[in-house]
Design brief:
By secondary structure, this protein is mainly alpha-helical. It is 56% helix and 0% strand.
């Protein structure tokens, strides 16, 4: 629409019409929302309120509509990225700020973290994850556990604890051990092993003359055999502690008696097999000689 201008050649009626057209284009000033008294001032007021379009942060700065449409597009994109606030699992769903503040309150003070890195949750979690990986590597594969429960460390430990309690019942009270060391079974077993090694040295080679090659069974075999020996305390020898000692004592007496008796082969009797037989032969000869003499 071209600019309406009144020229000097216009008739009064043309002037009237152009003036009315200008009024219609401007409109009724009573409907103007601005408090300004003229259209120019109202337009300037709006311009000042709108501000400099070049200062807009949008990419489009040529007019407010394009700029607002750009913002609207970004808003739609953000809305899709943000999602529906009602789907938040926080108690406060009124806005993202309130929801985030609620989460921040639940997270607590980062400086109170026991991790070395307390700058942010991600770094702290990554540190924990790394430590967990190291622990897992140290622990090993749970599926390789010999326990029935392999799902968790706690479950497996509880199973071992139960077995330990049962073993304690079967093992008995450690202070009741007759070993010097009573602190644990390993120490006590080591003491027994040391004593066993000493006993093995004292016992000697297991080349036994018994039928059984097991020491306990061999001793039982010897004991069964020696039951027919009788009570050592009933021996008439001075030594009654061992059979060997008693036999040695008898052997010593025999040696003395043999020395006193002399050599059996030197007997003048025909029977030299024993003193008794030789004496009996001598008695028979004496009786025969007595009879012969009358």
């Amino acid at each position: 629409m071209s600019v309406i201008l009144v020229s000097l050649s216009d008739t009064f009626d043309q002037w009237r019409k152009k003036t009315n057209d200008i009024s219609l284009i401007i409109g009724d000033i009573d409907y103007m929302i601005s408090n300004e008294s003229t259209v120019i001032r109202a337009v300037n007021e709006n311009f000042n309120n709108i501000g400099d379009l070049d200062s807009l942060r949008t990419q489009l700065k040529d007019n407010l509509v394009n700029s607002i449409n750009e913002i609207d597009l970004h808003t739609d994109t953000n809305f899709i990225s943000i999602g529906n606030l009602s789907s938040l699992t926080t108690l406060d769903k009124s806005s993202l700020v309130n929801a985030i503040n609620e989460l921040d309150g639940d997270i607590g003070d980062l400086d109170s973290l026991n991790t070395n890195n307390t700058s942010n949750i991600v770094s702290a979690i990554n540190e924990v994850d790394l430590n967990t990986d190291n622990v897992v590597n140290s622990i090993g594969n749970l599926s390789n556990l010999t326990t029935t429960e392999k799902g968790t460390i706690v479950g497996s430990i509880n199973e071992v604890d139960l077995h330990t309690d049962l073993n304690k019942i079967d093992i008995g009270n450690l202070p009741s051990l007759i070993t010097t060391t009573k602190i644990n079974l390993v120490a006590s077993s080591n003491e027994i092993k040391t004593q066993a090694n000493t006993n093995t040295h004292d016992i000697g080679d297991m080349n036994l003359n018994t039928v059984s090659t097991d020491l306990t069974e061999a001793i039982n075999e010897v004991h069964t055999t020696t039951l027919g020996i009788g009570n050592l305390s009933s021996l008439s020898t001075d030594s009654k502690t061992y059979i060997v000692s008693a036999i040695n004592e008898v052997d010593s007496h025999s040696d003395i008696n043999t020395s006193n008796i002399g050599d059996m082969t030197s007997l003048d009797t025909d029977d030299k097999t024993s003193i008794v037989n030789a004496i009996n032969e001598s008695i028979e000869l004496s009786v025969a000689f007595a009879i012969a003499l009358g």
